[in-house]
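Format notes (please read before filing issues)

Several people have asked whether sequences and structure tokens are stored in separate files. They are not. Every record keeps both together, in the order shown below: the sequence lines, then the token lines. Line labels are part of the format and must not be stripped during preprocessing.
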Amino acid sequence: MTYLFDLDYIEKEDPLVVDATKFGNLSHFINHSCSPNLQVYNVFVDNVDAKMPRIALFARKNIAINEELTFDYQMNSRTPEDINTTDASTSNENGTHNRKLIPCLCQAINCRKFLMG
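Then the structure lines:
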């Protein structure tokens, strides 16, 4: 399992990435939904460098007691050629990584059916 969070809002070609595989916080346990109740925002605390925000989650609506917290992972492939439904970990002859279509299990009315694609 990977916990990579792209900070691609500034550098589209070479985005910075937060890698929380070994370190992180409780956001590891927040699942994806195509109709989330949380929204991700960049917050700047004691810092004005646009490349180094803190990542904050804020409620998009009132959240009921015991309701699952979710946000939209917004996992999109860069190009149609990046998608490979059989293997997510190999490189193709162009040196780009193939991506696996991961079924979305959110069951939202507007579900996109896959996390990649």
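For reference, the curators noted about this record: Confidence is low (pLDDT under 50) at residues 78-91. The chain is about 0% helix and 20% strand.
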